[in-house]
């Protein structure tokens, strides 16, 4: 079983020196990515940025895995193979931070809808942490031995990118890893890192429910079968699934994120689309959620006399199992990091959350691969403290229009990533 080793003081100092010397470039790179966000599977510019940065450091790079994914390998003698992932995609959220490098990007999706795009989950920081960590590892390569595999992953937000990379032959391009780690921003103060064992994030499924009706004139609803009303009634009833069909002691979330139907005020459309997602830890809960969604949707449609061959379509778009940190690996990484950044800055008892991830899907054909996921605080400590004084748990939440990664977190996160990698590479 691989575990994290304690790093010598002189190596820590060399890492800090390398990252500090690179800090200005990393911050400018972060601002550039933040100004130019890209949605899932459109991360062409961001992927190219990672490709060039890692090629310049001597990594062997394979691009285009799972459409826009990157896999880069650096061999440095005998030793463990350590894989690290950073996700690249942004959110369809309009930024309201007021930063001078705020995103103003808008794009038209395949369905014709125009949406704003912004990095309101910190994936721009993740990319910079990967690049900064890679630079530091190369700077101290005389102090470690093994193989580093770095993954630039697309489409984490729809929970489809990791699977796309695995399905596209990721393991034809990289050696089998001995261990997989990842890092994610959280709205805690800069300086705090979580390495906590056990279940941390819920499993999830992205579900579309397409209602079929009969279109018509708004003045003659009796001649139509209104899918807008079907969707509205179904959404209301979906709200009862968790409260009335799931054991209250279980974790379950059902959220409707969008309802799309029609274009004109006086036209009843023929279709209505409901976009939902579910979160769960117990597979039995998942089955109840999904079967109940189908049951509700079909019952509503039947109440409008929809024929059996026109019942709602349930479209599964992507999902992942719960994220579970390996207990021994999480404990050893927490201990290793605590000796560098201090015990008070390392959280080891973070409770499970209902957010979801797909980084663990990168294990692919090796489900028993040891895995640990670090959470890194990115909020300005003063802003965080002020929020706590107001009674808020944090100054912002992921996907919020005011999600702000403090610039001090860019270099700090790169250092944490380098410490984590070196601890697993047996550096000394």
UniProtKB/TrEMBL annotation:
Residue positions binding Mn(2+): 121, 123, 157, 184, 399
Needed cofactors: Mn(2+)
Domain Peptidase M20 dimerisation: 207-302
Superkingdom as given in the UniProt entry: Bacteria
Cofactor note: The Mn(2+) ion enhances activity.
Transmembrane annotation, as ranges: none
Assigned keywords, A-Z: Hydrolase, Manganese, Metal-binding
PANTHER family referenced in this protein's UniProt entry, alphabetically: METALLOPEPTIDASE, PUTATIVE (AFU_ORTHOLOGUE AFUA_6G09600)-RELATED (PTHR11014:SF63), PEPTIDASE M20 FAMILY MEMBER (PTHR11014)
Name under which the protein is recorded: Hippurate hydrolase
UniProt organism field: Gordonia humi
């Amino acid at each position: 079983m691989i575990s994290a080793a304690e790093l010598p003081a002189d190596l820590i100092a060399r890492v800090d020196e390398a990252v500090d010397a690179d800090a200005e470039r990393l911050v400018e790179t972060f601002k550039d990515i933040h100004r130019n966000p890209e949605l899932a599977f459109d991360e062409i510019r961001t992927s190219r940025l990672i490709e060039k940065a890692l090629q310049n450091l001597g990594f062997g790079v394979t691009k285009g895995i799972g459409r826009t994914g990157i896999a880069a390998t650096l061999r440095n003698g005998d030793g463990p193979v350590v894989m690290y992932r950073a996700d690249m995609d942004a959110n369809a959220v309009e930024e309201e931070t007021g930063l001078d490098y705020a995103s103003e990007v808008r794009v038209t999706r395949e369905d014709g809808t125009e949406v704003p795009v912004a990095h309101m989950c910190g994936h721009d920081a993740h990319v910079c942490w990967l690049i900064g960590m890679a630079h530091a590892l190369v700077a101290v390569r005389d102090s470690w031995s093994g193989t580093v595999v770095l993954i630039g992953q697309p489409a984490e937000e729809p929970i489809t990118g990791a699977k796309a990379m695995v399905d596209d032959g990721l393991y034809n391009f990289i050696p089998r890893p001995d261990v997989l780690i990842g890092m994610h921003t959280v709205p805690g103060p800069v300086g705090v890192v979580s390495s906590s064992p056990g279940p941390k994030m819920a499993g999830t499924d992205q579900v579309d429910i397409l209602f079929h009706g009969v279109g018509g004139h708004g003045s003659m609803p009796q001649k139509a079968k209104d899918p807008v009303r079907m969707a509205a009634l179904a959404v209301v009833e979906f709200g009862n699934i968790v409260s009335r069909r799931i054991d209250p002691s279980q974790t379950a979330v059902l959220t409707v994120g969008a309802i799309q139907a029609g274009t004109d005020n006086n036209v009843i459309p023929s279709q209505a689309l409901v976009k939902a997602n579910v979160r769960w830890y117990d597979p039995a809960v998942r089955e109840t959620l999904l079967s109940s969604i189908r049951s509700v949707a079909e019952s509503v449609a039947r109440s409008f006399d929809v024929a059996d061959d026109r019942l709602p379509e349930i479209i599964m778009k992507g999902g992942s199992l719960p994220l579970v940190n390996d207990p021994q690996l999480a404990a050893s990484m927490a201990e290793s990091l605590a000796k560098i950044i201090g015990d008070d800055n390392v959280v080891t008892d973070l409770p499970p959350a209902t957010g979801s991830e797909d980084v663990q899907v990168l294990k692919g054909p090796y489900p028993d691969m040891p895995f640990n996921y670090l959470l890194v605080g990115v909020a300005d400590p003063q802003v965080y403290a002020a929020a706590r004084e107001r009674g808020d748990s944090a100054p912002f939440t992921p996907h919020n229009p005011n999600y702000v990664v403090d610039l001090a977190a860019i270099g700090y996160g790169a250092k944490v990533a380098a410490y984590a990698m070196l601890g697993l590479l047996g550096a000394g």
